[in-house]
C-alpha cells in the first residue's frame, strides 16, 4: 500500500461546541502550545471563558494553530489524565485520526516537519487577511505517503527515539541549571558561601556589615559597585550583507535577540549567515563575552535578555559569531566573575528591574544600557569566593553546552531523515544506522 492519500480521507477536525457544568477548566490558546508541547495546566474559572470555544480534546489529538504555521504553535495530546477538563481556542484546530490505516504518531511527525509547515505557510500567505492563516480545508488536501501500518509505526519510533534523546538532554540541562542557580542563591543571595572552615558563612556567624548604598547587610570585605565597574569593554552589533559582495567578505553567524533563549538552551537557534567587512572582525564574539538584547521586548517581556559565550558555545557553530544591531556584547574585566555576572543579571531581569530602564523610539523599546550599568549598584563579592564559584560552575555549563551541541546534531539528523523516511528514500534500517553513527554516550554531572 505504498501510495499517497489525501489527509481528508484519514483525519477530521473537531469543532463541536460543548456546554460544561464545571466551575473551572483548562483553556488552551495558540500561545499555550509550542513545538509539540502543551505549556500550561492551570485552571481558569468558567465565568472568564464565556464566548471562548468549547472544543474538547482527547489523547491522540494534534492541536494545530491556524495562524502562522511557521511559528510551530502545535502540540500532541499525550498522557493527559483529565482531558475532559480542557477546552481549546477557535484558533487551534483539533485534528483527530479517524482511520485504522494511519498511525497517529506517524501523522504527528508528518504534520510537524518543515516540508508540511512550509507548504501550509505558503498557502496561508496566499489568503487574504491580517495574518497568514490556514483552515482544515487546506490541511485535508495534503497528501501523505501511506506505507503498511507496521512500517508507519517503525518510522514513527525512529523519529520518536530521536526526540526522546533530545528531551533527555533537555531534562539533564534543566537539572544542571537548577544546581547552578541553587549554589548562586545560597552563596551570593543568602551569603552562606563556604567560610574558611567550609561552613556556611552567614549561618555560622560570619560578620555582616550594613551597606548604606545597597540598604542591606553584606559580608565583611564585600563592596558595592555599579554594573559598569564589572565591564571592561563592549562590542556593538553588526548586520552586514546576506551575501559576499565588495568588501563584505567575512562570513559569520549573527546572534539576534530571537536566538538568545536558544543559545541558553530554551529553544532553537536560527542565527542567519551574514557577511561583514574585514575591518569589523573585531566585533566577533569570544569566549567570556556576554550578549545583551538592547532593543525589542514586549509589554510583558523587558529588553535585556542575556546569553554568554563559552568555548563549547563557539563549537556549536561553523562560523565565527557576531551579534546583531539590536544587541550589544560586553567583556568583563575579570573572567572569573562571569558566572556571578550572569546569575546576578538574570535575577534583575526576572524581577522586572529592567522595565524601569527602557525608552521607546519608533515604537520599539530600547534598553537604556549606559544609564543602567553606570547607575545601578550591586554587591561585588570578594575574589577568593568568586574563584571557587567559577571553578564549581564552569564544568556545569560546559556539560550543558555539550548537550546542546548534541541536540543540534540530533535535530539536524531527524530533520534530514524525516522527509526521506516519509517518501521511502531511506529505510528504517538505514535510518537506524545513521542514528547509531551519531550517538554519543551520556554523562551525568555529579554534585
Describe the structure.
Strands 2-10-7-8 form a four-stranded antiparallel beta sheet. A four-stranded antiparallel beta sheet has the order 15-22-18-20, sandwiched between helices. It has a three-stranded mixed beta sheet with strand order 6-3-9, with no helix packed on it. It is built from ten helices and 25 strands. It is globular, with a radius of gyration of 25 Å. Among the domains are: 3-145, DNA methylase specificity domains (Adenine-n6-DNA-methyltransferase TaqI, Chain A, domain 2); 223-380, Alpha-Beta Complex (Adenine-n6-DNA-methyltransferase TaqI, Chain A, domain 2). It has 447 residues and is α+β, with helices and mostly antiparallel strands. Helices cover 33% and strands 22% of the residues. It has helices spanning 104-111, 114-125, 136-139, 149-189, 257-263, 311-314, 338-350, 369-375, 383-421, 428-438, and strands at residues 3-6, 11-13, 24-28, 33-34, 37-38, 44-45, 62-65, 74-76, 86-88, 92-97, 143-146, 208-211, 216-219, 223-226, 231-236, 248-255, 273-277, 290-293, 295-296, 306-308, 321-323, 327-332, 358-361, 364-367, 377-380.
What descriptors fit this protein?
Adenine-n6-DNA-methyltransferase TaqI, Chain A, domain 2; 33% helix; 25 strands; globular; 10 helices; 447 residues
CATH architecture of the domain at 223-380: Alpha-Beta Complex
- Overall mean pLDDT: 89
Task: Supply Rg.
Answer: 25 Å
**Spans with pLDDT under 50 lasting ≥5 residues?**
441-447
**Within the largest sheet, what's the order of strands?**
2-10-7-8
Q: Please estimate the helix content.
A: 25-40%
Distance between the termini: 53 Å
Overall number of strands:
25
CATH class of the domain at 223-380: Alpha Beta
- Summarize the main sheet: 4 strands, antiparallel
Structural class: alpha+beta
Q: CATH homologous superfamily of the domain at 223-380?
A: DNA methylase specificity domains
- Net shape: globular
User: What is the name of the CATH topology of the domain at 223-380?
Assistant: Adenine-n6-DNA-methyltransferase TaqI, Chain A, domain 2
Which range does the strand content fall in? Answer: 15-25%
Number of helices: 10
Amino acid at each position: 500500500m505504498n501510495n499517497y492519500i489525501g489527509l481528508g480521507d484519514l483525519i477530521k477536525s473537531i469543532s463541536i461546541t460543548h456546554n460544561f457544568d464545571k466551575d473551572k477548566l483548562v483553556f488552551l490558546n495558540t500561545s499555550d502550545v509550542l513545538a509539540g508541547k502543551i505549556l500550561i495546566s492551570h485552571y481558569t474559572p468558567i465565568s472568564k471563558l464565556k464566548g471562548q470555544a468549547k472544543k474538547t480534546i482527547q489523547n491522540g489529538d494534534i492541536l494545530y494553530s491556524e495562524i502562522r504555521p511557521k511559528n510551530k504553535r502545535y502540540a500532541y495530546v499525550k498522557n493527559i489524565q483529565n482531558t475532559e477538563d480542557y477546552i481549546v481556542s477557535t484558533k487551534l484546530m483539533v485534528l483527530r485520526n479517524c482511520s485504522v490505516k494511519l498511525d497517529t504518531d506517524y501523522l504527528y511527525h508528518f504534520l510537524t516537519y518543515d516540508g508540511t509547515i512550509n507548504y501550509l505557510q505558503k498557502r496561508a500567505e496566499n489568503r487574504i487577511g491580517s495574518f497568514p492563516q490556514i483552515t482544515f480545508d487546506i490541511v485535508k488536501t495534503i497528501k501523505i505517503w501511506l506505507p503498511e501500518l507496521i512500517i508507519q509505526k517503525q518510522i514513527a519510533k525512529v523519529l520518536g527515539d530521536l526526540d526522546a534523546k533530545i528531551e533527555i538532554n533537555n531534562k539533564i540541562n534543566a537539572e544542571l541549571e537548577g544546581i547552578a542557580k541553587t549554589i548562586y542563591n545560597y552563596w551570593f543571595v543568602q551569603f552562606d558561601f563556604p567560610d574558611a572552615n567550609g561552613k556556611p558563612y552567614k549561618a555560622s556567624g560570619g560578620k555582616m556589615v550594613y551597606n548604606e548604598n545597597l540598604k542591606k547587610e553584606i559580608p565583611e570585605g564585600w563592596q558595592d559597585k555599579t554594573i559598569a565597574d564589572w565591564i571592561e569593554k563592549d562590542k556593538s552589533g553588526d548586520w552586514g550583507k546576506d551575501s559576499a559582495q565588495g568588501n563584505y567578505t567575512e562570513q559569520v553567524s549573527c546572534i539576534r535577540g530571537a536566538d538568545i533563549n536558544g543559545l541558553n538552551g530554551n529553544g532553537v537557534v536560527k542565527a542567519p549567515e551574514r557577511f561583514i567587512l574585514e575591518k569589523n572582525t573585531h566585533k566577533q564574539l569570544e569566549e567570556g563575552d556576554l550578549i545583551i538584547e538592547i532593543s525589542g521586548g514586549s509589554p510583558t517581556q523587558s529588553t535585556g535578555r542575556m546569553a554568554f559565550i563559552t568555548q563549547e558555545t563557539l563549537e556549536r557553530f561553523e562560523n565565527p559569531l557576531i551579534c546583531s544591531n539590536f544587541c550589544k556584547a560586553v567583556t568583563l574585566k575579570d573572567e572569573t566573575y562571569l558566572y556571578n555576572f550572569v546569575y546576578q543579571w538574570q535575577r534583575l531581569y526576572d524581577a522586572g528591574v529592567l522595565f524601569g530602564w527602557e525608552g521607546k523610539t519608533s515604537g520599539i523599546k530600547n534598553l537604556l544600557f549606559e544609564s543602567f550599568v553606570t547607575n545601578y549598584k550591586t554587591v561585588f563579592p570578594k575574589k577568593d569566593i568568586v574563584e571557587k564559584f567559577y571553578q564549581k560552575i564552569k564544568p556545569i555549563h560546559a556539560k550543558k553546552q555539550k548537550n546542546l551541541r548534541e541536540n543540534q546534531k540530533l535535530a539536524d539528523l531527524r530533520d534530514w531523515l524525516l522527509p526521506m523516511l516519509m517518501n521511502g528514500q531511506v529505510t528504517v534500517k538505514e535510518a537506524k544506522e545513521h542514528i547509531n553513527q551519531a550517538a554519543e554516550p551520556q554523562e551525568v554531572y555529579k554534585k
